[in-house]
């Protein structure tokens, strides 16, 4: 595959960021959205807007899904049926069963599915994974991962309190990193406070936390917070092993602030954007290169962890898992 032809489905904030990244890696992109915003997004980037999903998929090499979570399975399965590979913004689906169905369909069709777990592409988290994989911390024993930021915008749709809210949305990033670093999870205990149902009223806040017991015996603690704007995104982690530890706090290296010369709605970073790094790795894999650092089974496993966290928070009890259940 030379320069891929990408069908980008969705026209919200994350679609804008993905479109910028695809263009930076040399892809050709056409845009489709069922909310009437595709034409404006396409015009802003000088690409073509498709009139419907079939037109968007026709002649494309792959689809990039940047729509609300409950629409992911229908779009992904349509793309897979057309023989297209899939990139899908996290989470892969709202439930583990739906995520597993996407993965199973892709495996039968022989096409790849790559969930966009962008935190894996942030330099500090990638470096953490490399250190652990190289054995520089010895045997990993414990970790803390936290993120705080603004409450999501209303495009995320409606969800009940039973859905888990922040536990299955923002905290999915932390769950994914804990799973990536420490491996399979056998027990989840979680809780939340504050606004959970979507869309949230003005000024809403929410916090969530989950303790994961891993099959290796390691324990990780994931926390998340939503607050009213203009709270900046803050990320931190601390991981300890038998031979050392490593810490990171985004307050130590604040984001680069650009007020001119940037594409509207696309953040700028020190060094390469993690979104560009992610899309570049996906594009290389579609072209026959090595598999990316996140695959479809990771997407299924982490959705199942988020489901377990939601169930734990709703019942007040820990949820026991097995390694096989986490990947089914």
Mind sketching the topology for me?
Blueprint: E1 5-9, H1 13-24, E2 28-32, H2 38-45, E3 48-49, H3 53-57, E4 62-65, H4 72-81, E5 85-89, H5 96-109, E6 113-116, H6 123-133, E7 140-150, H7 172-182, E8 185-194, E9 206-214, E10 219-227, E11 234-241, E12 244-249, H8 274-286, H9 296-315, E13 319-320, H10 323-327
Parallel strand pairs: 1-2, 1-4, 2-3, 4-5, 5-6, 7-10
Antiparallel strand pairs: 7-11, 8-9, 8-13, 9-10, 11-12
Helix pairs in contact: 1-8, 4-5, 5-9, 7-9
What does this structure look like?
With 328 residues, the protein is of the alpha/beta class. It has 10 helices and 13 strands. The strands form 2 sheets. Strands 12-11-7-10-9-8-13 form a 7-stranded mixed sheet. The relative contact order is 0.17. Mean pLDDT is 89; it is low at 323-328.
List its salient traits.
alpha/beta; 6-stranded parallel sheet; globular; 328 residues; 33% helix; 7-stranded mixed sheet; single chain; 24% strand
Q: Indicate the radius of gyration in whole angstroms.
A: 19 Å
List the secondary-structure elements in sequence, H or E. Answer: EHEHEHEHEHEHEHEEEEEHHEH
Tertiary shape: globular
Helix proportion of residues, in percent?
Answer: 25-40%
Q: pLDDT average, as an integer?
A: 89
Query: Ranges with pLDDT <50 over ≥5 residues?
Result: 323-328
- Which structural class do you get from the secondary structure elements? alpha/beta
Tell me about the biggest sheet? 7 strands, mixed
Main sheet: which strands, in order across?
Answer: 12-11-7-10-9-8-13
Distance separating the two termini: 31 Å
